[in-house]
Write a structure and sequence with these properties.
135 residues, 31% strand, alpha+beta, 3-stranded antiparallel β-sheet
Length: 135
């Protein structure tokens, strides 16, 4: 059928998932936020439909997907064997990734929401260990 990640996504067809992108060589998550949440559909290629009322889809770059889990963050569907979060440091309302500024927030509430989303894959990976060939 193809890559293990493709198999996992096809198995999740019609379900709402979140994907995490990153560097497949190192396994480091890039903390991408846009186009990473939606219902798995096949639009001439695997894609995420952003909402049930929307025609907008984001085609998935399977070569950069490092993790797939349910949208609630509780169940891991697939994980690259080297997946890991980068080093994150928070100073005030700024987030640093590997020593470089990554994001700025206007308020504490938005920062906490972002941090919770950034940590969601770690929670999912602890809940279920992946199976199969993950390379």
């Amino acid at each position: 059928m193809g890559l293990p990640v493709e198999t996992a996504l096809r198995g999740a067809m019609g379900r709402r998932v979140r994907v995490r992108y990153g560097d497949p060589r190192t396994g480091e998550d890039c903390l991408e936020e846009h186009g990473t949440l939606g219902t798995v559909v096949d639009e001439g290629g695997l894609a995420l439909r952003h909402s049930a009322r929307s025609l907008q889809v984001s085609l998935l770059d399977l070569s950069r997907v490092l993790m797939v889990f349910t949208s609630d963050g509780k169940t891991e569907l697939w994980r690259h064997k080297k997946w890991h979060l980068p080093k994150i440091r928070v100073e005030g309302l700024r987030v640093f990734k590997n020593g470089k500024e990554h994001r700025r927030f206007l308020d504490e509430k938005a920062l906490r929401k972002w941090l919770a989303a950034a940590e969601a894959p770690r929670v999912a990976s602890q809940a279920r260990q992946p199976t199969g060939d993950l390379a």
